[in-house]
Amino acid sequence: MNHPNAELLLRFAEGETVPAAVRTHLAECEACQEQLAQLGKFEAQLATSSTMSPSERQALRAISVRTLAAAARPSRLRLVGLVAVAMAACLLATWSLWSSTHGLCDIGVRRYVPDNVVRAERLERFSMAVQVDAPRWLGLWQLDSKDSKRLMPNDDPLLRYLGAEMPLAAGSHRLPAAEVLDFEFASDQPPSSLLLVASTTELSASDLSAIEQLIATTPRPELLKAVQAKWFEARVLEFPAR
Amino acid sequence: MEATLLRDRTLIDRWRAGDADAGVTLLDHYVGYVRRIAMRLGVRSGSEFEEFWQDLVLRLIQQLPGLGERVRTSFAGYLAWQVRDLVRAWRRRRRHVVATDLLDPAADDGLQPDAQTAFWEALNDCSGQLPPREQAVFEHRFLGGLDLGEVATRVGSNANAVAQAVFRLVRRLRDCLTGKGFDGPGDLL
Lengths: 242, 189
Hints:
The complex is a heterodimer. Chain A is α+β, with helices and mostly antiparallel strands.
């Protein structure tokens, strides 16, 4: 008999049923056996190279569990938050609301033109409404297409958290704590987005530096993921348009 | 619906409904598969893959609301696409952080790559020398785990032609790997 075609040979290698004549041929065909041996050795190489130790598998599983747990909490909160936010939106049409895919906060950003400034100054302000379900320290950055500016913690120790007590207790909060401290920006140069980082511990100087390094070096579309690699509860919020 | 797809879609639905354990179970099924593809693309085993895995899980969480609709034919196929995309994103990101691409096998991180990493680097190099069609067959067959018929459909060919390509590419890869000092499975241990 002629050599079986490659498909039959491969199906035989995979343990599928092939005609008896093919099996008989393969038992006597050295060239066919060599081909099968090469395939078997290669698959064994791949299998060996893909082997995970139990400890590695366990470590990866722990990462899955931890990451999913961190993301699961906010989904419960999100539901509650959306309801609250929807009610607020009915009352205050000027509030722009976002709810992200995970995190511990529900957040609203309010952009407004202050009524006590000279119109020619063309300045606007914004504040935020933040809801947390457990105590959280926050960091906030204003992002432009290229530049960024840390809004909180402020370098001035007296204004470090803009009047808010950190960690924020569970519940709803205004940031900054008082309108007089609201964030200000030139009307023709509004931020493109805001980066909010929530953490169970105060962001240290090295944390702030690491986040700012990411902001400086990571393309904007990938920034959130880069920050979330360490701070799961980070959010990037689009700045509301006028 | 195929049993694996049915299982995966059920787990995705439970995960979307808030059952994080279903998500963990789903990911458990595919961690070896993801690792194989990631290593083939140059991600190193150990802490680098752990970091990669975390990024991938975060990405899946972000896409979870629409995941059920995206996975129409195979979660494995969707994952493979995500892994490739994430590796590309990693390369871009790391080029911004340091001048050296850390995913470049030639980059010196001061660590000796382990045997598995070295094998995948060698395999990456060898498979890169295959003709395009054999590269596609290699990826679908040996990394994607598709059967002959599925590979044939994806490369627009028939099962016998794919089988011929399999034997041909295996011979080429074995020769190439032997030339790089990987003669058999024992070399990896």
